[in-house]
Every structure is written in structure tokens, then in C-alpha cells.
Amino acid sequence: MATGELELKIVSLQEVVHHDFVDSVTLPTTAGEITVLPNHAPLISELKSGAIRARANGAAEKSFPINGGFLEVASDNRLTVLVS
What is the model's pTM? Predict the structure, then answer.
């Protein structure tokens, strides 16, 4: 992992949906939309229906529709998203 990158893992009950290193991730939490950047404070939150949007290396944004779930931001630049 390069400095300034966030490891994103999106996991469903059946499979790992996406695993990559990204610059930012925007997620639809029940408290509102948030964007997670590298070195974000640790966080656990519930997600609502919507889309996870990830950006990496100036490339086009990737979007992943979800029906809800949970996210965990760890202090070592890891973001794990459990989706239904």
C-alpha cells in the first residue's frame, strides 16, 4: 500500500465484491453521506440504501449499489464495508 492510500474491501454474504486501494470513498450512512479519506479517525457506522463511490489515482469514480450494511474504518487505513 502506498502512502496516502486507503484499503477498501466491500464484502457481501456470498463474496468479496471489491478489494482495492483508493484515494477516497463516499458512503450513504444513516446519519448522512460521508467521505472517508486516508488517515480517517476510526469509525463504525450503519449504512442505508444507496451507492458506495470510490476514487483511485484520478481514475473515473467506481460505484457500487447497496441495500444497506455496516462500515468500519480502522486506524491503519483499512475500510471494510459489509453489505446486504
Answer: 0.90
